């Protein structure tokens, strides 16, 4: 057998007996794995951060075991404004809305279920304080502001199952509450819309 024939046979034998390492596949799945680990870690840290924010809000009142059924009838709530419970099938638009008249509780509660924070104030609140609240809500997704004549504090911030009563819009707890509860971990229906529903009080 000639030398060139022996070399040809050796190359064919090597090609059949040696398997190539699939570096492309290994690199692809390594990158996917790293992205997944980073995403899970980020989500975990965000949850811890939100929990820390909400736990540190002084004066926070919480309520568990709230119903989530839909009803077109009036609902008698045991807090004012309500912190959750059965509610109207149509939510109140809460995409940074400022309402000048009181809202129907049953629609507002549906917005809370979607992760909104509802800021309410007693009529007669000083103009500068009202302007400060409007500034925090206007254009801020998953928030809404309205008067609520029957409440027992000048200002209340309400999320699903959580409420904070305040004397002043300058209180730093306003921002703490918004950071912790706008689409926060208390949200029963995360990802649900906050617009495209009831636009009028």
Largest pleated sheet: 6 strands, mixed
- Second rung of CATH, namely the architecture of the largest domain: 3-Layer(aba) Sandwich
Structural class: alpha/beta
Strand content: 5-15%
CATH topology of the largest domain: Glutaredoxin
Order of helices and strands: HHEEHEHEEEH
End-to-end Cα distance, whole Å, is 97 Å
- How would you state the average pLDDT, rounded? 86
Percent helix among the residues?
A: 25-40%
- The CATH class of the largest domain, by name, is Alpha Beta
Q: Figure out the total of helices.
A: 5
How is this structure best described in words?
This protein is α/β, with parallel strands linked by helices and 201 residues long. The protein folds into 2 domains: 18-55; 61-70 and 80-181, 3-Layer(aba) Sandwich (Glutaredoxin). Helices cover 38% and strands 13% of the residues. The chain has helices at 3-17, 23-55, 105-113, 127-137, 173-181; strands at residues 61-62, 95-98, 117-121, 143-147, 155-159, 162-166. Strands 1-6-5-3-4-2 form a 6-stranded mixed beta sheet. Helix 4 links the parallel strand 3 and strand 4 (143-147). The longest helix has 33 residues, at 23-55. Mean pLDDT is 86; it is low at 46-52.
Question: Could you give a short description of this structure?
Answer:
It contains five helices and six strands. 38% of the residues lie in helices and 13% in strands.
């Amino acid at each position: 057998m000639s030398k060139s024939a022996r070399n040809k046979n050796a190359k064919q034998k090597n090609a059949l007996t040696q398997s190539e390492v699939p570096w492309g596949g290994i690199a692809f799945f390594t990158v996917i794995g790293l992205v997944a680990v980073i995403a899970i870690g980020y989500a975990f840290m965000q949850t811890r951060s939100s929990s820390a924010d909400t736990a540190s809000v002084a004066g926070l009142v919480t309520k568990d075991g709230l119903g989530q059924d839909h009803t077109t009838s009036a609902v008698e709530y045991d807090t004012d404004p309500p912190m959750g419970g059965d509610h109207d099938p149509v939510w109140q638009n809460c995409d940074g809305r400022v309402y000048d008249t009181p809202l129907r509780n049953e629609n507002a509660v549906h917005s809370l279920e979607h992760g909104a924070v509802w800021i309410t104030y007693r009529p007669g609140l000083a103009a500068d304080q009202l302007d400060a609240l409007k500034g925090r809500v206007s254009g801020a997704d998953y928030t809404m502001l309205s008067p609520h004549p029957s409440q027992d504090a000048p200002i209340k911030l309400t999320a699903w199952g959580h409420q904070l009563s305040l004397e002043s819009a300058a209180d730093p707890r306003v921002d703490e509450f918004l950071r912790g509860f706008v689409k926060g971990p208390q949200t029963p229906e995360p990802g649900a819309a906050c617009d495209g529903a009831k636009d009028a009080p």
